[in-house]
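Summary for the funding panel

The consortium committed to producing paired sequence-structure records for every protein in the target list. Below we show the first two records in order, beginning with the earlier of the two.
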Amino acid sequence: MQTDTIAAIATAMSNSGIGIIRISGEEALTVADRMFTPKQGDKKVSEMNSHTIHYGYIRDGEEIIDEVLLLVMRAPRTYTREDVVEVDCHGGILVMKRILETAFHCGARPAEPGEFTKRAFLNGRIDLSQAESVIDVINAKNDLALKSSVSQLRGSVSEKISEIRESILHELAFIESALDDPEHYTLEGYYEWLSETIGKELEKVHKLLVSADNGKMVKEGIRTVIVGKPNAGKSSLLNVLVGEDRAIVTEVAGTTRDILEEQIQIGGVGLQVIDTAGIRDTEDIVERIGVSRSKEFISKADFVIYVVDSSTEMDENDRMTIDSIRGKKTIVLLNKSDLETKTTEKNIRIYLDAPVIPVSAKERRGIEDLEKLITDMFFNGAISFNDEVYITNARQKQALVEAEESLKMVLHSMEDGMPEDFLTIDMMSAYEELGKVIGESAGEDLVNKIFSEFCMGK
């Protein structure tokens, strides 16, 4: 356990209303004593009650650096389970740096990236999955991602994993007891019980793994591709959804030749929107490359918005587009509904079974209907955030994959009539892999790597 005292700026390094300098460790109160002078009274920081706020000055020797509020939080009821002092100062970059340097002069050392959260983990306040959710809360790009991260921070993943591990450990202990003391513990008929138990735990692990695909969408946003033939209005739609002119819009077909990507949020659903080149046969080599890349992005998409020019009749380019999106979750937009209609919902239904909405990107009509439909589809269909636990972390997913394989091996070994002590090898492997999710089986190098990706001061 680390006992030295660390300090860092916990807010962004930019001019703002307030800034926070965080100090944590055995000497946190002593460091604060050396740099803080209360406005009234002569009580030292080390004599102040826990979880109290005090008004005064930060001094470097005789020089007053800033007028501040100082928060005193004594172990163990703190973020790190160590003594913690936080200085709320004015949010200028210079003044924050001066206060931090003063903390160093008074006995603290610079904190490493993520070291406060790392200490919370090492001191047992949170496990590794909760620690990783801290950075996910900070980086959340939409409401779903934030809710999922907060749920994990409260221990939703830890609880599920711990239940499975406890069940496996119970069976391991029983087998070991029966092998060591056969007079008091019998394994007669045990295979049937163990097969049922391992089967149930395997289902739980598999359910967590299945959640990883939705979890990825929750965290990174639903990979959404806007497709359609040239000049259907794809770029105009992107500009409307983003709220600014990000894509070039002209009357010339084939203007979009490269891929444009934007992050937007609709009703709490995060969309990673990609505007693609219009799909058509073309002799232009650059546009052909764009069309090829469009088809590649479509194949990887979670969701497709197919924009149809309703002022023209459907042609071979539309049919090429429809062929490329078959099997994808799709919404069809009949764009340019402000003009004379030549392609209707009935025409679309001949080729594609998908929701159809008339819109006018130019006049911003029908966009609210589109947003409502997207929200309904992903809250009541593909993703429904309730009490489900989502795995949003690639490292956790890989550990679950390994645990699932080990549990499958246990079942296969029982089918092959392998002895009980042989089963315990794969059971212990599953137990340890699950332990990696919450950090109980994680090596020091892995722990250091995870926390090195945190921001400074967290």
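The next record, for a separate protein in the list, is shown here:
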Amino acid sequence: MSENIQDKTQDKTQETGAGTEKLRSGFAALVGRPNVGKSTLMNALIGQKIAAVSNRAQTTRKRIQTVYTDDRGQIVFLDTPGVTKAKNRLGDFMLETARSAMAEVDLVLWLVEPSTFIGAGERTILEKLKTAKVPVVLAINKTDTATPEQIAACIETYRKEMEFTEIVPVSAVKEENLDELLKVIFRLLPEGPLYFDADTVTDERMRDIAAELIREQALRHLDKEIPHGIAVLVERFSEREDGSLTDIDATIICERESHKGIIIGKKGAMLRKIGSGARREIEEMLEQQVNLKLFVKVRPDWRDNAMLLKEYGYLAPKKK
């Protein structure tokens, strides 16, 4: 967690051109089961792509922090991994990341799909949220895929399970009703100063975002279980002296030799496809041309190797 989250004793006013005006600022955790659209919603709310997005589980593995600021104050969003049963040390890390985020914020934003079925993943989250000491907002996402009657039935189903502070239907993909969601969040946040400069969108390093964008392209193009067994390590990220280009060397880590062959593809075709898509995304982020070189290495069972998890940016969760 950023150091800023600890500093809540600052003067609760912000000097503006019009004088001293009270602002509302705080931290909001986005939680939900895999593939419910947390990263898509966060990207839509801040108006910039920071988190990787795909239709596969485990797209988000780490807690990603982004910042939305307007004249009402500042919302620091924490996008968390989807809550699901852990199958290895990486899964333990992801589950603990989601749990700890819920305990450290000013508000929890729980995303669900517009359905009356409450599965095991939702039940796990419900049990945690029922003991939450902060406001819990239920956001029913993907309303563009449901009828008004289905959305109303979903709202009624969840109301019977828990008393939410607010329930807001939204469509992250269509960017529908996001203004209402922001209005609700600001109303529920405490009065306080801006934690980041007004023009800050994220405190994530550009090289880490680049790694996630590369992994996103692998998720999009690779089949079956291979994407779950890959990580991306950016080993060089440097802008040339004349500012004309950024050079990036990155390695895709996989668990088996057979997977390495699939990732590279026939005559390197798959690796080029992944690299081409990632380069476009990174160039859009940096607003600069990028020279991206991709490599592939095999590290058997890295998802259960504490040393490799740490090297790839997944710190082992604390034992309870």
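Regarding this second record: The first strand starts at residue 14 and ends at 16. The chain has nine helices and eleven strands.
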